[in-house]
Amino acid sequence: MLAIRGLQLGIVAIGCAAGALVLATPAGAQDEEKPYSIVDGKVDQGTYNGWRRYHASCHTCHGPDGLGSSYAPNLVDSMQVLSYEEFAEVVVNGRENVSTSQQSVMPAFGLVADVVTYIDDIYGYLEARADGALGRGRPQRQ
Questions:
Q1: Among 138, 96, 93, which residue's Cα sits nearest to residue 119?
Q2: Is residue 1 within a helix (H) or strand (E), and if so which, with residue range?
Q3: In the predicted model, is pLDDT for residue 9 greater than 60?
């Protein structure tokens, strides 16, 4: 009887430890939701709209698929390290990088309605590209 009671206490202790581990995991780390949806190779409306808005306002400098140019950086790579907040900060307020060898300026788009209104969609499109979930070219809609 004593051995069974010890086994029961051990199981309870393991259960409590597992519960504490789940509670200690940061929110969103267990089931991180992506800002895009791709089903059978077709994107959701927001991601498609992000592609449209990107091509209307961003591709001239950052290239047709976010891969960069001699004028502006590769956004597919940048999205690997930028949070949504950092991305929005740069898009809305712009950024200036000056070094001894070059100067690059990202203009502010905070007053451009076709960009700032759809910043979530643009972010979703670029995240899908950065995650490798979406290839180059015009995506198909769901």
A1: 93
A2: none
A3: no
**The tokens of 35 are what?**
């800002």
* DSSP H or E segment with residue 103: strand 103-106
> Which residues have C-beta within 8 Å of that of residue 93, sequence separation ≥ 6?
108, 110
Angle, to 10 degrees, between the axis of helix 84-93 and the axis of helix 119-130?
Answer: 130
Confidence label for 103 from pLDDT (cuts 50, 70 and 90): confident
140-141 and 42-43 beta bridge pairing? parallel
CB 115 within 8 A of CB 57: yes
Instruction: Answer whether 29's CB lies under 8 Å from 21's CB.
Output: no
Residue 31 confidence class, pLDDT cut points 50, 70, 90: low
pLDDT higher than threshold 80 for residue 33: yes
- Report the distance separating Cα 15 and Cα 17, nearest Å: 5
